[in-house]
Amino acid sequence: MKLQDKIAVVTGGGSGIGTEICRVFAAEGAKVAVTDVDLKTAEKVAKEICSADGEAAAWEMDVCDGNEVDRVAQNIVETLGRIDIWVNNAGVSYIVPFLECSDEVWNKTIAVNLTGTFNGCRAALRQMSIQKAGCIINIGSQSGKQGNTQYAAYCASKFGVVGITQSLALEFAPLGIRVNTICPGVVMTPLWNDMLGVYAKKRNLKEEEVIPYMESKIPLGRLTQKSDVTAAAVFLASDDASFITGQSINVSGGVIMN
Question: 94, 154, 199, 213: which one is catalytic?
Answer without folding.
Answer: 154
